[in-house]
Design brief:
This protein is an all-alpha fold. It has 8 helices and no strands. Helix content is about 70%, strand content about 0%.
C-alpha cells in the first residue's frame, strides 16, 4: 500500500468489506463470537495487502479467509500450499488465451460480429483453464487485443 491517501482509503474499503460481509458471514454460519476468532490482526492485514496488490483473486481471498477463520493459518502459507497466487503476467497468460481462442472459433466469430457479451464467456474459459489463477482483467485485455 503505497502510503498515499488514495492507497490507504482503498485498503480501508477492502478491509471494511471483508469485515462486514465475509467475516461476518463466517461468524454467523459457525454461530461464533468475535472472541472465538483465530485470525490475528497481522494475518488479516497481510490478507488485505494481498488483495490490494492483486496477488490473489477475490474468490481466492474468500477461501483463504475461511481457512484463516477455521484454523488461524497464515495467508501466505495458504496461498503457497494451495497455488492460489493470481497470475497477472501477460506473457504467461498469452499461451492460454491463444489456446482458448483456437478452441472456440464460433465464439470468436460471434464476438467479431458484434456480440460483446461473448468476451466474458471467453474470459470464463481462460479462468477455468487456469483454475481461477488468471487475473481476469489482464485476460480481458489480452483477448480484446488478440481479437481485434
Amino acid at each position: 500500500m503505497s502510503g498515499d491517501d488514495g492507497g490507504f482509503k482503498k485498503a480501508s474499503v477492502i478491509l471494511g468489506n471483508y469485515l462486514t460481509s465475509d467475516l461476518q458471514n463466517l461468524l454467523t454460519q459457525k454461530s461464533a463470537d468475535v472472541s472465538d476468532m483465530r485470525i490475528t490482526p497481522e494475518n488479516m492485514a497481510e490478507l488485505i495487502k494481498m488483495i490490494y496488490n492483486n496477488e490473489i483473486s477475490s474468490r481466492a481471498a474468500k477461501d483463504i479467509l475461511a481457512r484463516m477463520f477455521a484454523d488461524g493459518s497464515d495467508p501466505s502459507t495458504i496461498v503457497q500450499e494451495g497455488g492460489l497466487k493470481q497470475v497477472s503476467d501477460a506473457g504467461t497468460l498469452e499461451v492460454t488465451v491463444k489456446k482458448i481462442i483456437e478452441e472456440n472459433p464460433k465464439l470468436v466469430t460471434d464476438y467479431k460480429n458484434g456480440k460483446e457479451a461473448v468476451l466474458q464467456v471467453l474470459v470464463g474459459k481462460v479462468m477455468k483453464e487456469t483454475n481461477g489463477a488468471a487475473n481476469p482483467e489482464v485476460v480481458r485485455g489480452l483477448l480484446t487485443n488478440m481479437l481485434e
